[in-house]
Amino acid sequence: MYVTEEGGDRMAGPRAPRATQAERRARSRNALLEAAARGLSRYGYGNLVLAKVAAEAGYTRGALYHLFAGKEELALAVVEWVGETWAAEVGRPAAAAGDPVDALLVLARGHAVYCRRDVARVMRTLHAEFAGQDHPVGRAISGIVERLVTEAAERIAAGRASGALPPGPPPRQTALAYIGTLEGLVSSLAGQAPHDVELTERAIRGVLGLPPVPPSR
């Protein structure tokens, strides 16, 4: 902004339009969701302190409660938000691959990259925390995991039907191994870029019965 002062008069250039209430609300909501995702990743649901979430996002606890009724609603919103960002950055590019085997490999590589961020750990943290419990947050996480397993099983079955994948254990069991391997590796290799992607693909190829990555790659 260009500003000059002469004789006490102040002239300023044109200012950017003020954000609308909806835009400010969306900005506040996203900041709180990001802070909550980091908090859930580090401390889990039970140890999450909403006042700290609000402070980290730069808001008061009252502002947080203006947007979310409480911890459960906030956690559910975080799960939905992380699911949406994962779908945009990992799920849709994998689906665009077309070939089911390529889709499985694209998803594995993309997931490894996505999980380099702190907020990506929230799903693993909550899934472990709510395992075996009947809780809305746990059910939301389980629903997402089940969809991933089902989708992977369908791609594995399609790959075997086309001859791109060799025969092996039932598609669902192989899909469970695929998801489990993927999650275990990205957790163990946190902060190990770029080796996380290479090692993840190597392991996933083994689960699927594919040969190693060609040397020319």
TrEMBL record:
Residues annotated to bind DNA: 49-68
Superkingdom assignment: Bacteria
Annotated ranges, domain HTH tetR-type: 26-86
GO molecular function, one term: DNA binding
Alphabetized UniProt keyword annotations: DNA-binding, Transcription, Transcription regulation
Keyword Metal-binding: no
Protein name: AcrR family transcriptional regulator
Alphabetical list of PANTHER family matching this protein: HTH-TYPE TRANSCRIPTIONAL REPRESSOR NEMR (PTHR47506:SF6), TRANSCRIPTIONAL REGULATORY PROTEIN (PTHR47506)
Organism of derivation: Nocardiopsis composta
SUPFAM superfamilies linked to this entry: Homeodomain-like, Tetracyclin repressor-like, C-terminal domain
InterPro entries xrefs: Homeodomain-like_sf (IPR009057), HTH_TetR (IPR001647), Tet_transcr_reg_TetR-rel_C_sf (IPR036271)
UniProt region (Disordered), positions on chain: 1-24
Keyword DNA-binding carried by entry: yes
Record Pfam families: TetR_N
